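Kindly go through the entry underneath: sequence plus fold tokens. Please state briefly how this chain folds according to its tokens.
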Amino acid sequence: MGSPLTLQRSGAAVWCTLDRPPLNLFEPTLIRAVRDSFVELAADRATRVAVITGTGRAFTAGMDVRVLRDLDTGRARDLITTLHDAIAAVHQAPFPVIAAVNGPCLGAGFELALACDLRVAAAGASFGLPEVRVGVPSVIQAALLPPMIGPGRAAEMLLTGASITAAQALDWGLVNRVVPDDRLRATAEEVVAKILASGPEAIRLQKELIVRWRETDLATAVRYGIHAFATAYATAEPREGMNAYLDKRPPNFER
């Protein structure tokens, strides 16, 4: 059997495809593949953006229930810790990560999508956290839900296990765009192109700030921002970007 996660590089972008059809269910091998791949990508400064998507009809329908069914307390802690490490590797990647959600995005898969910086969804996608229906709570990145969509909506999703449509997800601010199913790849590529048109170091600084802002108080977040702004001037990007703006030409951040 091949890897349950395939990586395809396209210039400075890497496409990461969950490849465990038909539902791309999470189990230990896929969890390790996500963690190890993003640890390696984080160390590769040639990677400036990553896209996560799924093969076939699902982004991922979450954890394989057959894996969950026979756990005891100790093995449950080990499994969820490993899953946390994998999702944290995505969340803390030093480059932007886009979820291109091509179908059902449930449970651990939804948490993976929440760990991404941007989410583009096919019109036929759906989102949900059904864990309570099989006797366990939703954890890890589910903690991001209340500030993203409000405590009432988050509580309804978490306590009922009900899924929402892509259109609802867009209305609630969970996804950035919803497009026809056959336009998902092209739309993700458009977002990738916009990111790659910006200064590479500025994007890395901005990504670091986005993660830090989620994890700290307002006053500390502002101080982080002041430091990041000054740090940008240790590179040639501000001068090139502003000269290009004044000269009415595209910037060349690669030179």
About this structure: Residues 73-91 form the longest helix (19 residues). The radius of gyration is 19 Å. Residues 232 and 238 are 7 Å apart (CA to CA).
